[in-house]
């Protein structure tokens, strides 16, 4: 892969959502591989902490267009006008039954998981077109391939991200710019803790027709016990490195056993059979 950064001629990457979890570990891992990493976070205290760790850090809130433009301008100022790669990692999950999702809650989920990623990709595309090369990596999910109950907002945002990314990949064919999806499953991070906060903040559990299920869901989100298939962020890093450094990256990378299994079943099973499998697999959440 060609590279454009002027800091010891390192390859450069902008990463969103680096305050903790996957984003932080990816930033650390790519720096060790001699990438010039621009690690971003919404809160200034996180930006300052990342800077103290030795990462080049900038504030970036993907729900704020001015913040997106400011961050991209800041990166270009430091690199002399180039950027090799973007990893759209920022995101969160909003649990809740579809009938309990207000328009505002659904819109907020899309602002972070879809609209922010889209706007940031569009902001860096002119740079990559001028260079004639670049990589845009989108952090999707197995829930962009199959839908699980009580994850409707998140399912919808990731299904939309997959469709938009597939289209972008087709439209960029021959440009030298590669677009890839990372379809993760359970990975150790603050995702579940953040989902619990959003669940408690936005869902009226006691007045819902799903209140009994919600009690079980709340216990599950509050639990410190990992799913048996949960992987460390290093599993994401390994796939991301291939997407960034391979001369011929894959359009999709499945990460974790559930991602591989459910992607296969999505293609192999009729819809009703797949529904039965998924509902059986999540039945514990309604106990």
Low-pLDDT windows of residues? none
Gross CATH architecture: 3-Layer(aba) Sandwich
Element order: H for helix, E for strand: EHEHEHEHEHEHHHEHH
The main β sheet shows up as: 7 strands, parallel
Rg over CA atoms: 19 Å
Sequence of strands across the biggest β-sheet? 3-2-1-4-5-6-7
What is the helical fraction, as a range of percent?
40-55%
What brief labels describe this structure?
10 helices; alpha/beta; Rossmann fold; Oxidoreductase, short-chain dehydrogenase/reductase family protein; NAD(P)-bd_dom_sf; 287 residues
Question: How would you describe the overall organization of this protein?
Answer:
- This protein has helices at residues 21-32, 44-52, 65-79, 103-131, 152-171, 191-202, 211-222, 233-245, 257-268, 271-281, and strands spanning 11-15, 35-41, 56-59, 85-88, 134-141, 177-184, 252-254.
- It has 287 residues and is α/β, with parallel strands linked by helices.
- The model has no long low-confidence stretch (mean pLDDT 93).
- It has a seven-stranded parallel sheet with strand order 3-2-1-4-5-6-7, with helices on both faces.
- The protein has ten helices and seven strands.
- The N and C termini lie far apart (50 Å).
- The chain is globular and about 55 Å long.
């Amino acid at each position: 892969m060609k590279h454009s950064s002027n800091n010891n001629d390192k390859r450069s990457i902008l990463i969103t959502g680096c305050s903790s979890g996957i984003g932080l570990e990816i930033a650390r891992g790519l720096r060790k591989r001699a990438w010039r990493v621009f690690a971003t976070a919404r809160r200034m205290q996180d930006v300052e902490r990342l800077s103290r760790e030795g990462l080049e850090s900038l504030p970036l809130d993907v729900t704020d267009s001015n913040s997106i433009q400011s961050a991209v301008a800041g990166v270009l100022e430091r690199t002399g006008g180039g950027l090799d790669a973007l990893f759209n990692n920022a995101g969160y999950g909003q649990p809740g039954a579809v009938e309990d999702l207000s328009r505002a809650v659904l819109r907020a989920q899309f602002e972070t998981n879809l609209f922010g990623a889209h706007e940031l990709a569009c902001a860096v595309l002119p740079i990559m077109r001028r260079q004639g090369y670049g990589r845009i990596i989108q952090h999707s999910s197995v829930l962009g391939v199959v839908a699980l109950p009580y994850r409707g907002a998140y399912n919808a945002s990731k299904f939309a991200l997959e469709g938009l990314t597939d289209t972008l990949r087709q439209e960029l064919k021959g440009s030298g710019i590669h677009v890839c999806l990372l379809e993760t499953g359970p990975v150790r991070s603050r995702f579940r803790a953040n989902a619990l906060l959003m669940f408690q903040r936005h869902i009226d559990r006691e007045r819902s027709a799903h209140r009994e299920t919600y009690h079980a869901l709340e216990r599950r989100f509050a639990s410190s016990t990992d799913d048996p298939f949960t992987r460390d962020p290093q599993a994401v890093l390994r796939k991301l490195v291939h997407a960034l450094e391979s001369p011929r990256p894959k359009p999709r990378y499945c990460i974790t056993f559930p991602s591989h299994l459910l992607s296969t079943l999505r293609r192999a099973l009729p819809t009703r059979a797949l529904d039965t499998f998924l509902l059986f697999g999540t039945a514990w959440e309604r106990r």
